[in-house]
Amino acid sequence: MTDAPLLDVENLWVKFRTRTGVFDAVRGISFTLGKERLGIVGESGSGKSMTGRAVLRLIRPPGFIEADRLNVHGEDILSLPEKGMRKLRGGRVSMIMQDPKFSLNPVMTVGQQLVEALRAHENVSRSQAHKRALEVLDEVAIRDPQRVIDLYPHEVSGGMGQRIMIAMMLLPNPEILIADEPTSALDVSVQLQVLDIIDKLVRDRGMGLMFISHDLNLVAKFCDRIVIMYAGRIVETCKASELRNAQHPYTLGLLNSVPDLERPRDHLEVLKRDPAWRDAPSVSARQ
Amino acid sequence: MADQNVNQTGGRLRPPVPIWVRKSLATSATVAFTILGLLFVTFMIGRVMPIDPVLAVIGERATQAQYEQTFRDLGLDQPLLVQFWIYVTDVLKGDFGTSIRTGQEVTTDIARVFPATLELATLGTLFGVVLGVPLGVIAAVRQGSWIDQLARFVGLIGYSMPIFWLGLVGLLIFYGILGWVAGPGRLGIFYQGIVEPITGLILVDSALRGEWAVFRNAFSHIILPASLLGYYSLAYISRMTRSFMLEQLGSEYVTTARVKGLSEWQVVWGHAFRNIRIQLVTVIALAYANLLEGSVLTEIIFAWPGLGQYITTSLLANDMNSVLGGTIVIGTIFVGINIFSDLLYRFLDPRSK
Hints:
By secondary structure, chain A is α/β, with parallel strands linked by helices. Chain A contains 11 helices and 11 strands.
């Protein structure tokens, strides 16, 4: 074990070759992730999801990534061959996606998908894996694991589907969890429930969490540290508790355009984007 | 009626009939209706064709009295609905009438020619599936690579080359010049009549009876036309497989599978392919049904005594009983294959239960 951060990213670029040239989705961002909850906030197209996928090297052609450094627990993964990446994916770094309706395989039972996730990383028998799957379903507060494990994804609700997704991704005990908008496809009533489960598991297991969201308030409440992305760059980073003292006009604009129940206003601000933000250098979110 | 369904103790409604009973009843009703429609259409074809059925039976030099006698014997003086009823009951009894051209029962004729088509179509579809599905999958996975280009080229030729031309060129090269395969027909002249038919499929029969020389000869006869038909279904099947796979490979659950750290093989075959099996069943069933119709051109070029050739020859000889009988058989096969693929659908897709 080293003292290196769980995740260390320096000057990461995500580029896409298109007919009209190379499009940069993420433009030279740097950040680290320790055993903390790091929120990555930004609007659609700001590159936040691409950042999450780039960490797993899941950008498919014509996209590709470049970086000065991309380390997981001190190990350089940029030069890792595909076989080593497969060990890392799911085993040490895992990801929860937005909508369980699409992210679970519709023609496989919950149990088959859970067992497969574990057996990709641990040499356990099918029956042992089945037992572990039942346990992890219990951990994500699913009431009747024996019944749920034989269901197909279309037979479970959205909230339950997302808890199954969490269970599946945590089964091989990863160190880092990337949650890409894990609650935006869910009903408001189950959002908090799912967040609580993520929070509890991440805390109990001492994992690092990269929480990608467009919901600034949610991230402020849920995370320790926040990174604000705009047009593929990090424009501001701060502790979640200090978000109110944010400096960057984009962050302020975002904060001002959110209604507040306690202090009602006559009209909400409309975000005015300054073209200069796009070209400003990226702020480093390394610690 | 309703209170019969009320459970005495709980007072809750019980479903009157189990779901699977209702489903199979619905399926049977659909099938019966489709077959009735098929019979109606073939019956009407027989009536509107500019062929006088009486003349076809008695010939042109019969007297007026003979003509009228036969006209009544055939039931042509009856109202159309009555004629249709007679036709339906006869067909349901398995009586398609007598072929004027061969002088035999149409059912006997079809029992003779259909196995030839079945053998050819099955082998052709087998080629198409065994080569076409993997080709389509690989083309989708390696989109834009040389193998994708190859798949597209193969598909393009399959779509644009007339089969009679490829058939003739194939015969010229592999039979005429290279001599790798046997020529037209199902069996060489020295091998005919050796194997007593069991199923009518020469490959199966000769294997069952252990006549391996006959088997080899039959195989060298069938290989060229079967590959040719197989090539056309390969073109279709691989193109459909490719586009189905592309759709699935872009979906979120495939990313999930990658995130789990599965190998590319598991992602492609264990996840994406598992989801296209359902659509693929329909495509393959249609391709098979298409070949079972009897590919007239192929059967004529290769002198293959199959259903397509039988119907065409009968049509040219004004032998309507045979044509209608053959049409009904083809229609029934189509309906049968569709039911089968529906059943398989329910089995493969958990969402349809």
